[in-house]
């Protein structure tokens, strides 16, 4: 996990990120506190990119991909920030050296096999519970459990939002192309379980949904990366931010979802947006811990169950209005007029707050290490305020000699 934040006003964008990543290998995990998560997307234009979640994309480090794209972009520029994001997506989809066909095919097979194995595991766990309750389990009961678990996953996946540019035709094309692969993997995983005809059809649907839908709940794919692109296009007067969830490249198309799209201006003078672990930022902004707020609201609804729902909703709305007028609005009013240096200081402080909370509580310190901070403005471009290095700067003058427009080759 990680803690990252973007703070924007009409003058600039400040971005800050910690350096911790959790690496899983087999059954073990290790927290590394030296990861780079913020990069200049262009060496010549005021655009930055920040990543969180999975540090790799289809087994390639994001840092390598971003620096390859930056070289590809060169001195190129676009009228608005959204065009940078679109060009970055095209780069991912079109570079056959990065994601050749066999890599995409292997990912498809591994994803289907992994999800089918998860379904099988849930079936066996449920069967084991019934076996302990009754000391035996019949064939019909096992078949009923199988139907129940498959149906649960079918409903979950079907109800998820479509990935960008995926529709019914995408579903049908994928199902037709990979029907044989899906059948082979299904037979391999479920060979000894009572799978009926309806279950076979639903499992086929589920396999296709893995690549056309984008669930964001309990069964969200483990390999999703958050990608935040922010800054200014040539015609953007005020800063813009677009964020995405990226999962994989399949059939030479990126599977992704737009998660945020924000432009300063037209009545929006400022914004504070946390990414990944965000509970301490919400606590700071709203004056209440989000988990405490949820528990309090649940208790109020239970206590007031006999009251009219409209009265309960009105009461909770008044509490929300109080938090906004007392805590949120005063901070946002100040953010709208903060100079670049103060934006950077605030971004760093909010990330540090999350790191400190992890340090003094009995939970894994998944936020930590040095905090990197950058500010992006139209006039000055992408400027590092704080930046860690894995080497001693005084021993590597050639690194800094390669600086162009304030952006270093290594960043």
Give the key terms.
single chain; 411 residues; alpha+beta; five-stranded antiparallel sheet; 14 strands; globular
Structure notes:
This protein has a domain of 82 residues. It has 11 helices and 14 strands. Strands 12-1-2-13-14 form a 5-stranded antiparallel beta sheet, covered by helices on one side. The protein has a 5-stranded antiparallel beta sheet with strand order 5-6-9-10-11. Helix 3 crosses helix 5, helix 3 crosses helix 6 and helix 7 packs across helix 10. The longest helix is centred in the first third of the chain and has 34 residues. It is globular and about 70 Å long.
Can you write the helix and strand succession as a string? EEEEEEEEHHHHHHEEEEHHHHEEH
Shape: globular
Mean pLDDT: 88
Please tally the helical runs, counting DSSP H or I stretches of 4 or more residues.
11
Task: Report the sheet with the most strands, covering strand number, pairing sense and barrel closure.
Answer: 5 strands, antiparallel
Could you tell me how far the N terminus lies from the C terminus, measured between alpha carbons in angstroms?
21 Å
User: Structural class given helices, strands, pairing?
Assistant: alpha+beta
Q: Which regions have little confidence, pLDDT < 50, spanning 5+ residues? A: none
Compute the CA-based radius of gyration. 24 Å
Strand order of the largest sheet: 12-1-2-13-14
The residue fraction in helices comes out at 40-55%
> What is the strand tally?
14
Strand content: 15-25%
